[in-house]
Design a protein that fits this description.
By secondary structure, the protein is of the alpha/beta class. The protein contains ten helices and ten strands. Helix 9 packs antiparallel against helix 10. Its EC number is 5.4.99.30.
Length: about 350
Amino acid sequence: MAAGSSSSVPSDPLLRDELDIVIPTARNLDFLEAWRPFFQPYHLIIVQDGDSKNTISVPGGFDYELYDRNDIDRILGPRAARISFKDSACRCFGYLVSKKKYIFTVDDDCFVAKDPSGKQINALEQHIRNLLTPSTPFFFNTLYDPYRLGADFVRGYPFSLREGSPTAVSHGLWLNVPDYDAPTQLVKPNERNTRYVDAVLTVPKGAFFPMSGMNLAFNRELIGQAMYFGLTDDSQPNVRYDDMWAAWCVKVICDHMGFGVKTGLPYIWNSKARTPLVNLRKEHEGIYWQEDIVRFFQSVTLSKTSVTVQECYIELSQQVREKLGKVDAYFIKLADAMMTWIEAWNELNPSEN
Ligand SMILES: O=c1ccn([C@@H]2O[C@H](COP(=O)(O)OP(=O)(O)O[C@H]3O[C@@H](CO)[C@H](O)[C@H]3O)[C@@H](O)[C@H]2O)c(=O)[nH]1
Ligand SMILES: [Mn+2]
């Protein structure tokens, strides 16, 4: 593991000592220059994917720890096989080794976006605001985020629900290249997202959503144990569904635990997408299976005796084995990997389980 220290730190930013920024990279970290004004005060956890012989240089002035595949193998031993290799899902190793309450994860080809006024968007600050204010999963507020300055609960909103729920996840969006699947990319290769929607919504209880890993923040203490970006590298059939698997596990557990999931602001600028045909080869099993997988999650009920996220996740892995194991043997491996993730979490975070 490599480490570095910051040189000059601006004034006291929100959650500076309670949040880690996790970056998976198989390329380079030049994009950090664009984020420097917003990221420099924070600690970075860089998960270097691919060949450990490559050297990934971190621009000066950032406080970071960097883990390559040798580090992952050394720290996790045989369990390392459950952390995807040569796939962005490796980022979840950063969630395991972090000791902070909050995580923000971002891709190395995502840059600072501008709002309609032309002002640079501090995505990290917006995520923090989303996570520090409650969610409204049980009753939809038609003026969207009621905790936002200049908004509130509208007439008819039950006062008994206005305290809201703890927010576990803040899912941000992307200007420029939208996170489309390969078939959509193929038919709309030049479509760009130019629409800036100035809203943050809570995903209602019982509803699922596609969670993209490229601009995502979460309360690691609340929901980190369910944020396994599972078993999706090229040696597996279900590639590019790492973040979606985590999304659906997290959402069914948040619904059970009474936590909220928000989506909307902040936007980042997604600079590029992989070639659609490469993505199609990676995604095709997942696209086929997702109809069964989503129906499975929609049918999941967790027992009353599962009162912690870890207990929910273990129960969920058992249901994955029993019900999705019939779809394909891959899901039995994935159910095992979910258990290995929990074992690794408990070993690395003995005080957090
Ligand atoms: O083998 C790899 C490939 C990439 N990375 C790092 O992961 C992120 C995302 O990589 P990339 O931008 O090439 O891929 P996208 O298709 O844009 O990724 C999005 O699709 C989702 C499905 O997997 C994923 O959650 C999103 O991030 C970059 O930082 C790469 O450097 C890697 O570590 N290993
Ligand atoms: Mn990308």
